[in-house]
Amino acid sequence: MTKEDDSTPGFSTLCIHAGQEPEPVTGAVSVPIFQTSTYVQEAFGKPRGGYEYARTKNPTRLALEELLAALEGGATGHAFASGMAATTTLMLSLVKAGDHVLVSRNTYGGTYRLFSKILANFGVAFDDVDTTDLAAVRASLTPATRMLFAETPANPMMEISDLAGLAGVTRDASARIGAKVRLVVDNTFATPYFQRPLALGADVVVHSTTKYLNGHSDSVGGAVVCADAEDGAKIGFAQNAAGAILSPFDSFLVTRGIKTLPVRMRAHDANGRAVAVWLAKQPKVKRVIYPGLREHPGHALAARQMSGFGGMSSFELGSLDAAKRLLDRVRICALAESLGGVESLISHPASMTHASVEPEERVRRGITPGLVRVSIGIEDLADILADLEGALDAV
Ligand SMILES: Cc1ncc(COP(=O)(O)O)c(C=O)c1O
User: Fold this and answer.
1) pTM recorded for the entire structure
2) Ligand 1 pocket, 387 CB below 6 A?
3) Which residues are identified as catalytic?
């Protein structure tokens, strides 16, 4: 992403400098890990710089939170102990009993589990909707709808939803219902380097920083960024009240990871495109699902809405047996949950990331026993292709 105008620093500059003032005592260029639970007060009722207790405020976390807000173009950023902690705190803050929430039908399995198995018990009603179909979203709104939770690209079928279109739907619905219907976007797959939901009209962005933002598969974390400072204050209140904060060390790791986000994302994108094109030519691969391929139903929209397609793709091998054979043979691609690390990660959605989705629901979502998902890393392309070629020989 390039500079927007002369007064706005470019995205890569923000990644390195936003929220990253040199530390005032020593001038340390990287924000130190403030590994403390509390802070000595200057005098009775006089905390230094508003620092009283580390659940409420920590300088290492604050630096990351300011960085996240800058990258997404939001008013506020808050960092959490995991992506699911971020989503939980978001829901505790912005919906209440009696509200209705619409959710992308192919959202991450853990999000589906949180909504359907836990939050539904607290009087919030959830309905799945195909967010690639604006008419279907409009038709699913009720007078009680207060949130549309969309994931795009959606995991693992890489469905692309029109964010500006969805923002139009929630804006119209808010005016008609007479209450705010927020558009929340899980931007984990694209990252703000490739997609800026708030600029397209969304109200809130959530992330699993575990994935591309940290990028090195060595931290679990999450984030919420709000366009509106009042929403942000509610998230901050609930972050402190519920306490699912990101630790100082993890905050340091994510901040460090983000410094190289643009170069990593370009490398993931280049390898991701090349692997998808190669997979599409393999006779044993029945179908490749990658938004950068012309035949992907969301290709034109992805090309318009995102500035890159990234490193995530899924492919169909036709049977559980074929998927097992491939997954037992890979060496460079690590057979593991998660995604977005510098190393290539390969997984079986039906038994791993989406095991918490009921079998009939999985089939409805297209998550078949033969589906394999791959998060293409930034190793040498030739090594990734040789690894997949060797594994396909075993199929
Ligand atoms: C798109 C997406 N959102 C949210 C999450 C949850 O994040 P975490 O595992 O950090 O709790 C994941 C995890 O895989 C994910 O893929």
Assistant:
1) 0.96
2) no
3) 55, 108, 186, 211
Q: Which residues pair with 198 in a beta bridge?
A: none
Long-range contacts for 297-302 (Cβ within 8 Å, ≥24 apart)?
A: 297/132, 297/159, 297/160, 298/132, 298/153, 298/158, 298/159, 298/160, 298/161, 299/160, 301/160, 301/162, 302/153, 302/160
Amino acid 1: pLDDT: 38
- Which CA distances in Å does 394 have to 12, 50, 282, 328, 367? 42, 60, 13, 9, 22
Q: Band the pLDDT of 380: cuts 50, 70, 90.
A: very high
If DSSP codes are grouped into helix, strand and coil, which group holds residue 176? helix
Tens of pLDDT, residue by residue over 74-94, are 999 999 999 999 999 999 999
Q: How distant is the alpha carbon of residue 172 from its chain centre?
A: 26
The token pair at 142 is 């009720």
Q: Using a 6 Å cutoff on CB, does residue 349 contact ligand 1?
A: no
Q: How far apart are CA 123 and CA 99, in angstroms?
A: 8
More confident residue, 49 or 390: 390
Q: How far is residue 67 from each of residues 73, 266, 320, 330, 361, measured CA to CA in Å?
A: 10, 20, 43, 37, 38
Determine what percent of the chain is predicted with pLDDT higher than 90. Answer: 92
- Helix (H) / strand (E) element for 194: namely helix 191-194
Distance from the CA of 51 to the center of ligand 1, in angstroms?
A: 30
Ligand 1 atom index nearest CA of 189: 1
CB atoms within 10 A of CB 269: 21
